[in-house]
From TrEMBL:
PANTHER family: BCDNA.GH03377, NADH-DEPENDENT DEHYDROGENASE-RELATED. Residues 168-300 form the GFO/IDH/MocA-like oxidoreductase domain. It comes from Olivibacter jilunii. InterPro entries: Gfo/Idh/MocA-like_OxRdtase_N (IPR000683), Gfo/Idh/MocA_oxidrdct_glycsds (IPR050463), GFO_IDH_MocA-like_dom (IPR055170), NAD(P)-bd_dom_sf (IPR036291). Gene3D superfamilies: Dihydrodipicolinate Reductase, domain 2 (3.30.360.10), NAD(P)-binding Rossmann-like Domain (3.40.50.720). Residues 41-160 form the Gfo/Idh/MocA-like oxidoreductase N-terminal domain. This is Gfo/Idh/MocA family protein. It comes from the Bacteria.
Amino acid sequence: MKKFNHYSRKEFLTRSGLMLSSLALDKLPSFSSRLSTDQVQVGIIGTGSRGTGLAKILMGIKGVKITALCDVYQPHLTSARQIVGDKVSTYTDYRKLLEDKNIEAVVIATPLFLHHPMAKDAIQAEKHVYLEKAMAYDIPQAIDLRKVVEASSKVFQVGFQYRYFALYHKVKEVISQNWLGKITHFECQYNRNSNWRFPVNNPKDEKLINWRMYRAYCGGPLSELCAHQIDAVHYLLDKRPIKVVGFGGVNYWKDGRETYDHIRTVYEYPEGIQSSVTSVLSNAYNGYNIRILGDRATLEIQRDKAFIYAESTKNQQGTVDGVTGATLLARTQGEAEELIFKEKNEQLPDPSVLSLQHFIHCIVTNDKPLSNAHTAYDSTIAIHMGNLAAETETVQHWKPEYTP
């Protein structure tokens, strides 16, 4: 490959990685030093595993005080209260929590079907909102919630936390410097070998605990797992999809679930770029993975690492299937070179930590989140287009009414 500004590709990856803290992360300032002396009082709506995890993160952010918890499932509420502290108020009706004038912001970590009504009510109650992905249960809800947020002055952030991870900032920089050449394809997967279920002591709580299994509450693997990769492609390309095809079903975990245990979709973006998005719940090979295919190199994103593989530009002549002079299929990938995006031995915060830090920062400074109503809206529409394509076995197009 050609050299860039007199550095070799390896030197570029190393040097630019070491400069990251002064480059990409300039957009993520030192949060605690920017906070006011007054504490931001936060309520948590939804205290399951994700909500409790976010509560633990918030407890470690300077200038934040969790003052209220809400959940309809008493064991979750009790467990969260033990973690946050006995002085916190507890509710089973989120609307009662929103009536508390002292609460400035809410974190909503409930099943997908509740995202739209809860976020809308919270915005209209003059609360700042951190909403777990995706933005809404369906496309009409996403359109409505975007309009509600646009009419408000409150901070609205959606939990597509990889937009805050330095690794993706580095990948975006590498793409902009043309190290991969012309990009034609993304290959995204989020695979698990798991039934994705939680134990239920009382059968009447089945749908309350395992809501991801049922279509009335959830969009399945595309909304709960692959949503992050769909949003990552949007972030890296600064584009929204034109159309999508998809196939899904239940072919392994035949346990009464309604949402898919596998789905495969292909999205088409402007300039002919295609992105395949796959989730399989019966095989975890390579787990979380995004591959970006360019005509000069391939970039592979793993959970917290990335590697670049240079394309071979030399073809060898020989005998193939008895045809003399045919082109041999020479090695098409170079050796893996790790993409450097942090200093050696540097321990970077988890993306969820960075995401919540930025939420609090935006409340105090009135900045706009990196994952906001507009970016999350595009990704949410794309998620539902993919599910609709699989459910109807038709090509789903980005419709004019989807464009703000």
